[in-house]
Amino acid sequence: MTLFAALFSHYRRHPLQLVALALMILVATTLWSGVRQLTEQARASLSQSEQVIAGRQQVLRVDGAGLTVSDFVTLRRAGLCVMPWLEVPRQGQVGVVIGVDPLAAACFDGGGGAFDNAALRLESEPFVDIGEAVRLARESPAAERRPSLVLIASGNVTAGALPGGYRLETFARGPETGELGESFLLNLDALGVLVLLITALLLRAVYRLGIVQRRESFALLHRFGVPPARIDRWLIMELLTLSALCILPGLWLGRELAGLLGQGFGRSLQGLFDAPLYSISGQWLAPALSMMAVVLVACLADFLVPGGRRVVGSRGHGKLAGILLGLGLLLALLGPSLIWVFAAVAIVFAGAGLLIPILIYRLAERAACARADPLVRWRYRELAVMARQLALPVVALQFTFAMVLAIQALVTTFEDTFDRWLAQRLEAELYVPVPEGRSGEAAARWLAAQPELKTSGAWHRVIRGRAGVSVPGGTQTPVDVFALSPVSSLLTGWDLLASGDDPWASLAGEQAVLVNEQLARRLGLSVGDRLELQLAGQRSNLPVAGIYADYGRPAGEILINGRLLPEQFQPEFESFSISPGALSRARLRSGLESVWQVSDITLRDNEEIRDLATGVFDQTFLLTRSMTVLTLALAGLALLIMGWVFFTGRAWYFRLLATWGLSRREVAAQLTRLSVGLTGRVALLALPLGIWLTWVLVHRINPLAFGWSLPMAVYPGFWVELVGLSLLIGLGIALLMGRQLRAGVAMPASATSMTGGER
Amino acid sequence: MRGLALIALLTVGLSGCSEAPEPSGFAGLGERVDKTGEQSYLQPGPATGLAFPADLGPHPRYRIEWWYLTANLRTESGQPLGLQWTQFRQALEPREPDAVPDPSAWPLQAAWMAHAAVSWQGEHEFAERLARGDVGNAGATARPFSVWLDHWQLDAVADRRWRLQVTAGNFAYDLTLRVSDQPVAHGINGFSAKSDSGQGSMYFSLVDIAISGTVTFQGQALEVEGRGWFDREWSSQFLKTGQKGWDWFALHLDSGDRLMAFRLREEGKPFVSGTWIPASGQIQPLTSGQLALSVVEQRDGVPVRWQIEVPEQGVSLELSAPAGDYMNRGLYPYWESPVDVSGSHTGEGYMELTGYR
Q1: Could you give the domains of chain B?
Q2: A129: chain B residues, CB-CB within 8 Å
Q3: Closest residue to A131, CB basis, from B107, B128, B136
Q4: At what angle do helices A651-659 and A606-649 cross, to 10 degrees?
Q5: Is residue B284 classed as helix, strand or coil in its secondary structure?
Q6: Would the ipTM clear 0.95, i.e. be above it?
Q7: Three-class SS state of A227
Q8: In terms of pTM, does the model score above 0.90?
Q9: What is the DSSP-derived secondary structure letter of residue B55?
Q10: Cα–Cα–Cα angle for A577, A519, A415, nearest 5°?
Q11: How far is residue A699's CA from residue A713's CA, in Å, rounded to a whole number?
């Protein structure tokens, strides 16, 4: 028999262990590389679009009206180098296409810029000819917002050269979302790294279990004259081979996973940051090598770290943990930007990671000293040893609990808020877009004349377009304007983040505007502040009566009374929200068809839109949810296996309990209390960390990363679930140990394990 | 004739495909037209005939056309100054003249390209602009006569008086053009053959345009006067596979006679054609037996001295480009330079050479 065959014979006896190792490497590679690919791809997309527009300026109309082809002609005939840019969502697919005119772009060459021909070749994603983009936009459902034309100016266009009625502004694809997009990806990266960490612990647990079981074979081989160094070399070879065999299919599966999740992810990216997701180009070597390194470090850390340094619980660690926690908490509170807050989270986690095993250890030691009952003292001492020996998986489980708790709170809060928000926005039963070229005014007159609507229904007209707003002394910011009339009961139920006295009455009286949270944050607006408004060349100055939440879009937005719109305002889109009451839908349809002289109008049931939106939401958060659930499962499994390995190593002591006169049932009960005590404490100690993390996510990271905030909510029911899960893991460990003890216990594997040196 | 290669290559660029232009530049044009629905484009022929002023305007049923002005001017101090303005239209799909598409759809039925150049004291400045048709910033109308691309424009400002305005990076011009003569139809009734196998284009010229105005060259404003030559040409297919480029000449002789001559280079014998426009009397189309063009000297691979002979008219001319580099380095480079004429007659003119780089 060769040395390899002798070593490998272990897996012939324990094939499940081999399968478990292989599966873990495979699954971890799949998960991590899948997420990594998505974030890499998103980063490339962000950077590609940023690169093309870097340093560019756009021309806007001073009156805030949307740009049309005639504006393009006016500017070009004035000798200015401008090019059109039209972003259109891909129908039924992820991302956008960007319509450009390569002929108009030709003058950008040598004008100081990024618009070289290579960047705008029509065959390169995501650029298409603008005519094609217009065609796609016109084919999209009427309910969708019509894309706005942007005119990008070359570097040599100066404000002084512009004809009257136009101004220059820095061109950004979303409202300053570059950093936000990066933050979003950083969140995902952090999640990916956490998965990797947990997996590494899990791998380590299973591998160490195997090593414990193989110690006798190694000793035997050593006695036959095989030097330990050679055995170590063979073990490394074995691990490398196994990794290679599992990592490659794992990478392939990761690519498939990225493709599967890409659509929801792309929608998130698009919806949150207006950043499209372009096509994927996969990488193999770097992820394969990274994963290989993780496997080797996780499994062979014992070779790399001297044993003495692995003991936790020293006084120095306690002090360090205290300093880290204090520093991290302070930084999280005062950190000026997202990167500081992330650093604060990392520091607090590091502090908590150091502190928790020490805390459990000290508390157990103290409890042991305080108790007279020798069995209780034994149990506490044993718990103290476990807290030190199982420090890594204990910390991993704690982190995972905290993270799962925080993310669950965030997602659930978001879901609740989103549902409420959606219900308010879709309060009306029906949604009717005004067909192109037809009069919204005529339809409004017809609706106002319907007695059934007056008595039992409600409706309002929505005109969407562009406007410019500024605070006194500030520069003008382009915003989406929603002009509403009349201000119906369908609107007044909206939750407002902040409001003055009866904001809807002020809106109805044309005395105020409402702004969305994103705009309020960007311009530092609060209720009562006055806003300079420019609508199709007409200026007005109105106070802010309320701030409403708008979770879906990054753009600034204002609500005004429709009567404030000047005649020359060019609407981009018009629609009606109608709850018909006693007016039948058929009558409504025929009435509007006759007003508009069209044969088939779109009468969309808002319930369908709500289902669609909810579906999109679910898909958006599928990634986060599945990652957290998988991480939790992996962490639980890691603790279970590590605990089992640890208990196996100490089985000899547990056996002594029986020698001291405890029945088998009593021994099992002691083990159960021990293991459940450990996992339960871990879960309880994770709660404050989880709640703190929720606060950081809601009040610090979310506003910095996404531009809007959520109400902070905690869900004690979920805490109970988590604690229950941790108790189940404890029970699982006890159950496995019970079986182990019943099966008979081998002698301690080494001389040190007989001396109780761990204590 | 001129500008054909540019248009052909522009088509390739616009098609958005990865197909690289053929090395010779334009030789695939005939084939490409065959493949992309030749039937829908009108093909010119000897029976097509010319109509004025309509033919000054665009021909959207044809695939390609251009408005082309070259001018030999002099500054107040008598120094020669050469000037070019050209606007090309390339249809991507044919349409009826009155079926104008909706500009808000950003139609791409035609692409426009404009070139402008000034040559003075051995220096040559060139600029190029591109635009899509039917949007509004580029186009042409016959009545009133106007051809424009962005802020470059040639407009009729009065009866037989036009104004040409161009502002580019390093030069600008604002010129008044007085058209005194009648259009000269080349070939047979304006159908100018471009090969022995029948390809050709509709082609007429205004050969005697008095020009005055201001040229700003590298920051220096120059009052200029002189004469120009204006070409109108359109077709859908007239190059055949294997043709590699052409050499074109438009000459004002001091005797009052004018000569247009061109040579299409292909394997074997080049296709040669021209028009003799006497100071008085009958205009005479010239075929290969009546006209000979030969290169006398090359400069960096470009033939800059030529011998042109029209034996029936007793004409034996030597043409030479002034010192300097007159390559128009736009998307598709070509040579466009003034020439001095000596030999049996003296005079001046313009020379366009394509396919040499």
Answers
A1: 4-353 (2.40.370.10)
A2: 16, 106, 108
A3: B107
A4: 70
A5: strand
A6: no
A7: coil
A8: no
A9: G
A10: 60
A11: 11
